[in-house]
Amino acid sequence: MKKILVLFTGGTIGSVSDDGIIHVAGDGKFSLIKAYREQFGCETQFECRQILNILSENIQLQHWERIAEILFNVDFSNYAGIIMTHGSDTLAYTSAFIGMYFRHIDIPLYIIASNKPLGEKGSNGLFNFAAAVEKIKENKYSGIFTLYEKVYISTRLIPADTCRDRFQAYGEDGCNEFSVFHGINESWLSQPRERFFTQKPELKKGVLKIDGYPGIDFSCYSIGNDTAAVLYNPYHSGTGCTDISAGENYSLCKFIEKCLIRDIKVYICGIKPGGAVYSTLRDIIKAGCIPMYSISDVAAYMKLIIAYNQREYPVGEVLRRNLYFEIVGKSVK
């Protein structure tokens, strides 16, 4: 079997704990490979590269740009698969970015993380790494996946809860078997996907992401000169406050109007297609908000980052395209 390329970016899986403080360690990558060899032997050959060494909560646009640059320069034919280690806090965001931008990869790429530093009781880091190695050895599927105790389509991952560190998949329950993912069957994962982006991304423009909550005061949000768009993450019914009785600052519609005056488009994600809608959603769309259907807030955010920072296609074309299963119920081509 060809060797496996392992890309290290830091995170808990590459960290140590000193006096109760967790921080990234320079030799974290060696600890993971050493632990794997001690338990599973030396049969599998790895090529290791440290491309970042940060706690994932510190990730910025330039870090995703760095990851993309590395992947652009990889000759995938030289490897059986790729494993990228990552912190769990922003695992879903990086997973969605890689999945959409590198949809065409014809070998398996697994993005993994750990709940605790390696060697600590209850750490799942080595388990996740070993499981990714085994999945690559099976040589059954190609594409971008996230593996954290279970296997997820990378663009469907939802951030873990803060209580039990459990991840979920958007639109479904996470499961070990690919075939049970809603709207995704094995044949789709086995078929080649055409390359969509051919240029390295230069991520200079940001997206303001606003989560809806009761009493939200939109005047608290500042739109900078490098803000390309705004994403509103609504309640589960696709709604947001439109009432102005408490003042215009509490109305999403008024906020949308102010953004459009500055030529900043506002998007609302996760909208269910078809059927009746609440009057508030009707008013939000009438105000000029653009709906993004059947997509998680994480995938929508990363898709907007990609769309507004690439130069190959109109923004609308990127957003309409189901790049890598991020839109539930829509086919991938």
- List SSEs in N-to-C order: EEEHEHEHEHEEEEHEEHEHEHH
Distance between the termini: 30 Å
Catalogue the unreliable spans.
Answer: none
By secondary-structure content and strand pairing, the structural class works out as alpha/beta
CATH superfamily of the largest domain: L-asparaginase, N-terminal domain
- The name of the CATH architecture of the largest domain is 3-Layer(aba) Sandwich
Largest sheet: 6 strands, mixed
What is the strand and helix layout of this fold?
Blueprint: E1 4-10, E2 15-18, E3 21-24, H1 28-40, E4 46-54, H2 61-72, E5 81-85, H3 91-101, E6 108-112, H4 125-138, E7 143-148, E8 150-153, E9 157-158, E10 168-169, H5 186-190, E11 206-211, E12 227-233, H6 252-261, E13 265-271, H7 279-286, E14 290-293, H8 297-309, H9 315-320
Helix pairs in contact: 1-4, 3-8
